[in-house]
Amino acid sequence: MPWRIVLWALLLGVGVTQALAAERIDINRADASALQQGLTMVGPSRAAAIVEHRQQHGPFRRVEDLTQVKGIGKAIVERNRQRIMIEGGKPSMDPVPGTVPVRPVPRR
């Protein structure tokens, strides 16, 4: 009986990992509908504003560039950081401006 629980937990973990990977949105290619469905706190007007901003100013280079869109603030960007990718299929892990980068501590 315990092996069934372990198997179930493993399958659930794989499903969650796949679901999280599937939720990433390329903010330079997604249409308003995909942005609205894939990003938290982004409804129809914010999604349309993202698409409009992208059409007028070109592609986003960093996740933080989303704050240039009317209605998108730092809180929305941070809440969605793990869901966003920028061209190339990699999640954007750019450091947040104004923060100190974490560096490894040398061992003695």
From TrEMBL:
Q: Which residues form the signal peptide?
A: 1-21
Q: Which organism is it from?
A: Stenotrophomonas tumulicola
Give the GO terms filed under biological process for this record: protein secretion by the type II secretion system
Q: Which GO terms describe its cellular component?
A: type II protein secretion system complex
Q: Which UniProt keywords apply?
A: Signal
The record's listing under Pfam families reads: HHH_3
Region annotated Disordered, chain positions: 87-108
- NCBIfam families per record: competence protein ComEA helix-hairpin-helix repeat region (TIGR00426)
Q: Which PANTHER family match?
A: ENDONUCLEASE/EXONUCLEASE/PHOSPHATASE FAMILY DOMAIN-CONTAINING PROTEIN 1, ENDONUCLEASE_EXONUCLEASE_PHOSPHATASE FAMILY DOMAIN-CONTAINING PROTEIN 1
Specify the protein name: Helix-hairpin-helix domain-containing protein
